[in-house]
Amino acid sequence: MGANPYETGDIAVASEATPRYTVPGLTVQDAGKVIEVLQLRLHSLNDLHLTLKHVHWNVVGPHFIAVHEMLDPQVDRVRDMADDVAERLAALGGVAHGTPGALVEERTWKDYSVGRDDAIAHLGALDLVYTGVLQDLRAAIKTVGEIDPATEDLLIGQLRDLEQFQWFVRAHLETAGGTLSTAGASTETEAAEQSNEQ
């Protein structure tokens, strides 16, 4: 998905000002920090569920049905995750920006780059997408863990599910020797090409 906006401590999200109220036990300033993190998580999840659906529609080849059917439960779960994040954000006193325009304007990664292609090529690209999502999510967990254990708990549950989804993807990309065909790839296109060489 892209660069990790949490690495330097900067949060690259255009968000609402500090909320006027929040949940008991948090200051509005701390809630504002969590809201900023959650807004980027919401964008990430909305982008991921659309990307997964794009792949679902555009896979071809001998692995078509296996990948096509594997992705719909992931889409459904990721959509539920987005809903949970948006509702937590609202409970903290924030405004959940879920429009396509807000997503495109505020995201810190480029759009998914693979169109109609072989199922294994798409899985190679998805492996990189999941890696970016998971790296950003782990950074978000670290940030909110110092402020709000309820939000941390929510994100940890999502981390487990997303790591499992990446495992499903990687099972198609792993060699008998235990290496990934996407090893060393730095772009989705490169990962897609390497996956087809397997």
Automatic annotation (TrEMBL):
- Superkingdom of this protein's organism: Bacteria
Entry's InterPro entries? DPS_DNA-bd, DPS_DNA-bd_CS, Ferritin-like, Ferritin-like_SF, Ferritin_DPS_dom
Stretches assigned to the Ferritin/DPS domain: 36-175
Q: Which SUPFAM superfamilies match?
A: Ferritin-like
Record's PROSITE patterns?
DPS_1
Matching entries from Pfam families are given as:
Ferritin
For this protein, the record's PANTHER family field holds:
DNA PROTECTION DURING STARVATION PROTEIN (PTHR42932:SF3), GENERAL STRESS PROTEIN 20U (PTHR42932)
The protein here is known as Dps family protein
